[in-house]
UniProtKB/TrEMBL annotation, chains A, B:
InterPro entries: Cro/C1-type_HTH, HTH_LacI, Lambda_DNA-bd_dom_sf, Peripla_BP/Lac1_sug-bd_dom, Peripla_BP_I. This is LacI family transcriptional regulator. Residues 5-59 form the HTH lacI-type domain. PANTHER family: HTH-TYPE TRANSCRIPTIONAL REGULATOR GALS, LACI-RELATED TRANSCRIPTIONAL REPRESSOR. Gene3D superfamilies: 3.40.50.2300, lambda repressor-like DNA-binding domains (1.10.260.40). Residues 3-49 form the HTH cro/C1-type domain. Keywords: DNA-binding, Transcription, Transcription regulation. The keyword S-adenosyl-L-methionine does not apply. It holds the Pfam family Peripla_BP_1.
Length: 342, 342
DNA sequence: TTGAAAGCGCTAACAG
DNA sequence: CTGTTAGCGCTTTCAA
């Protein structure tokens, strides 16, 4: 298919050597102005594009970055990828996206795949199933540039882009309390993930500040991060068949939040009169829900951008960046009817 | 960073030539069982991975496919990408995703970028702004494998994966009519896109079948595909300030549909009593809307899968596939409150 | 200022 | 059965 011009073609056409053409194209100083102009004009004419594969082989870099997320079809991640793509593109990098579907095995395979593709760096949000991060530790120690975002690998001193999860959950929980709810349940992704635990701590702290006791039966985990609807359904069933039902629920991840609402309604509860609901989600349409949903929104696009900037900086610095960059964004709590006493 | 083992390393370590190692690794028949075992074991031990960049250079193919869509953060496309990724991954291809943000210039740049990256084929859903498809025609004539999905380039005999847009819009419109609405407006993406026009024709045909006249002032286009909220807002404002307002609206693309609902509510209209709403969207949460939204849903995941299978088949067939494959899926009309007389 | 040659990792035609 | 060699496209010493 579609053979493009090579340096050799140009050299032949112009009766020069490939090295001369190469130098002309790269604006080397050791080149005659005459020759240079000749080459550039011809290259322009035939629409010459250097072969990035050959360049990669030569330079031992691929100008591509690998992205590992659970799913693209997720409000948070699709927005983050949008940010990643915007920066990568304008910096001349390609983005190779892989999905784990929350499987640790798939994650490991993806990382291997990307590495074997010689990506120059990795942008990772851990899968829900991941507990063993030794491979990442190993790669990091070998100097592979890695930036974690949203879902961080603990115990590794890498760059990390996150939000203030504690504060986010604290504020959301406190808002429920202030609105008059006192029996607040927490439904989360797996506690494997640091962000789940941090959000849980925020929840706990808000209860404590307001003198509410944390009931263990009010804390539910979805070990597959809400990818499987049945998991969320099960958690909600348990919660809502308690002798002492919660009067409010806080859901701490995107997928879980958007599935909680229809399930609760299907179970016959009305929101917020039977049970209030607040959730972490980047859904653009939470306002259109019945009832309009109170959400914790993360600056996904900016997080994707910053993660990528950080990664590219790490890739392009000749000397590995020994100090890791950690950047924490604030979230936005958007209060709507679902978390207000009706 | 992270130097991996090469064939040369293995050859040196084992005192063989690189070609012998290569043959052993590739299971060539002309190789001693002894040597082969030796090489394979050693390769296994040091976790040898062939360098795909070198392979690409050699084979003149990159084992990657380029995807061009308007935005990842779009229900339909993120689901389609999910399907694309699933097939590509299991066939050993990488997926490089680019976004046009509905700009024709950006689209052209992306295609160039992907081509210069020597992707083996292209999966494309046109941008809303695209009118000139001569570049695609050119590429196609040069034998570049291309599959269009959802948003097709007309006048090029390429593979295309679509839905039956006419039927989808016809059914959705007819449902509104049967439900008792008679002043039905149509709000679409740009008529540049074939699918917009086909959906419009379905709308028109349904009106005609039921003896309703099509009012030109009831047909609105969003030339940026609904990416800009103001555009949708403007269309709705014009529609709803007509002396004779529509009593129902059909929105024929994902982005437009999900923005119509909050805008209409903000304008003070209640749905469906003031105006009914039906829309094309793959949103997972349309059921949770207030009111639950009637939608036309496309089999996005399957479309992504089939588009990718088709593309890979085209890439891997030695002789170009002269007959183009066109596959048309049916959509699903999910009727909810938003399109029923209250 | 330009050219020849080597090398990035790999495969394959050609010898032996 | 195995080794030598050339070449994919490009950059970069080293010579001239």
């Amino acid at each position: 298919m579609f053979k493009s011009y090579t340096i050799k073609d140009i050299a032949k056409a112009l009766g020069l050597s490939t090295s001369t053409v190469s130098r002309a194209l790269n604006g080397s100083y050791e080149i005659g102005a005459e020759t240079k102009k000749l080459v550039l004009e011809y290259a322009e004419k035939v629409n010459y594009r250097p072969n990035p594969i050959a360049l990669s082989l030569k330079e031992q870099r691929s100008r591509s970055i690998g992205v590992v997320v659970c799913e693209v079809a997720n409000n948070y991640f699709s927005q983050a990828i949008n940010g990643i793509e915007s920066i990568a593109y304008s910096s001349g990098y390609h983005v190779i996206i892989t999905q784990t579907h929350e499987s640790a095995a798939r994650e490991a395979a993806n990382v291997q795949h990307l590495l074997s593709r010689h990506v120059d760096g990795l942008l990772i949000a851990l899968s829900a199933e991941t507990t063993d991060t030794s491979e990442f530790k190993f790669l990091h120690s070998k100097g592979v540039p890695i930036v974690f975002f949203d879902r961080i690998a603990e115990g590794i001193d890498t760059h990390r882009i996150t939000v203030n999860n504690f504060k986010a959950a604290f504020e959301a929980t406190e808002q429920l309390i202030i609105a008059g709810f006192s029996k607040i349940a927490n439904i989360s992704s797996t506690p494997n993930l640091l962000n789940t635990r941090e959000r849980f701590e925020g929840y706990r702290a808000a209860l404590q500040k307001h003198g509410l006791t944390l009931l263990p039966e009010f804390v539910k985990y979805c070990y597959q991060g809400g990818m499987v609807v049945g998991e969320v359904e099960h958690a909600l069933q348990e919660l809502m068949s308690l002798p002492e039902k919660p009067d409010a629920i806080i859901a701490t991840n995107d997928r879980i939040t958007t599935t909680c609402l229809p399930i609760l309604k299907k179970m016959g509860f009305s929101i917020p009169s039977d049970v209030a609901l607040t959730g972490f989600t980047n859904s653009e349409v939470a306002e259109s829900f019945a009832p309009p949903l109170t959400v914790v929104r993360q600056p996904a696009f900016m997080m994707g951008q910053l993660a990528t900037e950080t990664l590219i900086k790490a890739i392009e610095s000749k000397h590995p960046l020994y100090e890791s960059i950690s950047q924490q964004f604030d979230t936005q709590l958007i209060i709507r009817d679902s978390s207000l006493k009706s």
